[in-house]
Amino acid sequence: MDNVQPKIKHRPFCFSVKGHVKMLRLALTVTSMTFFIIAQAPEPYIVITGFEVTVILFFILLYILRLDRLMKWLFWPLLDIINSLVTTVFMLIVSVLALIPETTTLTVGGGLF
């Protein structure tokens, strides 16, 4: 008998759960940055959220182009976890700082997002 194993099809990144989570994270960060820009918040708020948008776009592009499969010498899940932890710390600091002083409604909205 011939043992034929079916080929495993890989789901495109944009349709995976990981892709949806990254897209949602990107949308929330862009919304936060937009609120900070419109409210003319202090520059560190805009810079940190802009940096996070850039990093998220880098990871999305990396996974869409499947470069994670080419560069097997990096452990990508660990990089994702470290990125998420650093992002969480930075965004918590920014959101708390945005809510402390008397600010405009848009700055508070950016801090909440």
From TrEMBL:
<feature type="domain" description="MARVEL">
    <location>
        <begin position="13"/>
        <end position="113"/>
    </location>
</feature>
<protein>
    <submittedName>
        <fullName>CKLF isoform 7</fullName>
    </submittedName>
</protein>
<dbReference type="InterPro" id="IPR050578">
    <property type="entry name" value="MARVEL-CKLF_proteins"/>
</dbReference>
<keyword id="KW-0812">Transmembrane</keyword>
<dbReference type="InterPro" id="IPR008253">
    <property type="entry name" value="Marvel"/>
</dbReference>
<dbReference type="GO" id="GO:0016020">
    <property type="term" value="C:membrane"/>
</dbReference>
<keyword id="KW-1133">Transmembrane helix</keyword>
<feature type="transmembrane region" description="Helical">
    <location>
        <begin position="77"/>
        <end position="100"/>
    </location>
</feature>
<feature type="transmembrane region" description="Helical">
    <location>
        <begin position="21"/>
        <end position="39"/>
    </location>
</feature>
<feature type="transmembrane region" description="Helical">
    <location>
        <begin position="45"/>
        <end position="65"/>
    </location>
</feature>
<keyword id="KW-0472">Membrane</keyword>
